[in-house]
Amino acid sequence: QVQLVESGGGVVQAGGSLRLSCATSGRTLNINTMAWFRQAPGKQRELVAGQTRSGNTDFGDSVRGRVTISTDYAKNTVHLQINSLKLEDTAIYYCSILTIGGSRYWGQGTQVTVSS
Question: Engineered SS bond to 64: which of 9, 23, 59, 83, CB 3.0-4.6 Å?
Answer without folding.
Answer: 59
